[in-house]
Write the structure tokens for this entry.
Amino acid sequence: MNHTFLFRGLCSVLSALVLSLFVAEEAGAYDERNFISEAYASAVSENGGESLVKTGGGWFPYPAYEDRDGWAQLFGADAARIIKQGEKLLGYEWKIIPATAYLEYERSGDRKIMENPLEDNRKALNTLVLAELAEGRGRFVDQIANGMWMSCQMTSWVLSAHNPRQSSRRSLPDPREYIIDLVSGQYGATLAIAWHFFKDEIAALDPSINYCVETALKERILDPFFDESVRKANWWMAEDWKPGQIINNWNPWCNSNVLLCFLLMEQDQERLDAALKLSVESTDRFVNFVKSDGACEEGPSYWGHAAGKLFDYLEMLYDATEGKVSLFTNPQIRNMGEYISRSYIGSSRVVNFADATASMTPDIYLTYRYGKAMNSQEMMDFAIYLLYSKDRFRTPAVPLGNDTYRSLETARVLSEMTARVDALRSQDVAPHELLASLRASVPPATWYPETEFCYLRDGDGAFFAAKGGFNDESHNHNDVGTFIYYQNDIPLFIDAGVGTYTKKTFSAERYTIWSMQSEWHSLPVINGVPQQYGREFRSADVSCNLKKKEFSLDISGAYPETASCNVWKRFYKISGGRLSIRDSFSLAERKAADVENFMVLGEVYLPGESYVLDGKERTVPAGRVAVIGDGAAAELSFPVSLTPSVTVKTLDDPRLTNVWGDTLRRISFTSSQDAPLSGQYIFSIRILK
């Protein structure tokens, strides 16, 4: 999702430009690689300047609707399940979204009241389309026609939270101006696919339904893509990108769906060629903006919409041009794919900096498709690994979500994945050995030098991740220098993540939300001052030694001048089930106490308190704090000059409680008001056996 913090202003145009250029260069924020444009231009040249894709959708790599053998081969045994799910929707009542549901976003900030019924309709239409393709008897055509007709009667497919980008600035769609957002593009793609396969059957009911679909897609997707008057609203195209602005997952997400709409619907060859060129140039800007190390600064839960949608885009371009435009040997694209495998901790836990959730299962079939295209055994093995659940390998199945293109693309690899799973089932090998073999190609340590993410594992089941970066990343939290620490896939020291999105989440009030603040990350409050939001608040002197399993950085630059901090060098080292943390600091003057915070999941016991572990009562010694989680426990040693305390954070947001339960705890170690101007705070986390 997009921040409202995309465009920054400073006092003068000149100073803004100088600072932005400096920051962009320092952060490596934009590098004119233009991989896609170069590949596209080269293919056009080799094709004698002729169009690479002809109108009519003949490139679409699936059987015709009438090709029953082709669909039977694609869906295989999964066809029966898909048809059964479609049957449940034969009486589905398409949901109407009233004006007040859109206006609720303005009134209370609630997005879901508008989004939920729209989502139900999208999923229903996708399932019905797949069911009819699987069966081919026409039973679902009436309901597909109902869904297409209903969709065209809507004024817009844009979410209420995104409509304020219209000139009206209102959350209710204005029919005088069409813009493109994440959902409208994907909704349009589903309609385009339905039209492509069933236009003859729909015409037999009434040709006006097809006309409505063609008109709606032209008005809402195809024309707005070219319309320069709405380019500011369609900011994701990044046509007027300037240093300091963010290009995030919106770009490939929207571009991939817009491209699909043009490839299937556009009947004018000149417009199709122009759309391809404009789309390629726009998507290149995303590739130029993200770091070449491949890390997704938005986190694993956005990987499927960022790198994953980029892959969808590149696969469409590859198929539509008959392989003439291919980026599937590009190292950056490969790095972006393998990020998802490296960021997976285990047991559905992932590294969750920024707005990412800590508990999720990555898109299994997208991961496999991506790995297959890039020849990444690591990714393909990881996808198969994710199919293991409840002591068995699940049979691969076509997902029936809201993304029709991905559902169809899954069908293309379904038989291959099924054969791989069947082969694993037949092996007389212990499950833990099989699973270990599927993760064997994942390195024990990974360093993303541009994004400044560090992942370290040791042989005792510990997983550590920390980050540098700056406090204006996409979906940013003020979190430079924070870390997480897991034992045998069980979280102990954590990053809370983010709650349910509301109007406040992407507004000027974003940093009044507790989980965005550095005080609620495992970071210090320096001299009474927390970290601050802004591109200029960043790490320095960042170093990672994978062999020694060490990570260090100076986080003083993430704090405003009021912290009076010259240096705050944080050093991490993991070894033998122990994580060492050393903060070396130098202040210009002492104004208030320092507070070292640690976010944890579990019960916390301070020195002198007793707890029971493995049936034995223990007492916490001086200079230590015990963290007793669900299946894992650790002891945190701290300097005796600091005073420990615990704050219980009660959670009531489902997006957080579904991950962490009802409470989190923050352990705070507070210095005296007259603590030295320079020195060290040394901590050590030891796993309790």
Q: What stands out?
A: The longest helix spans residues 112-135. Residues 1-28 have pLDDT under 50 and may be disordered. The radius of gyration is 26 Å.
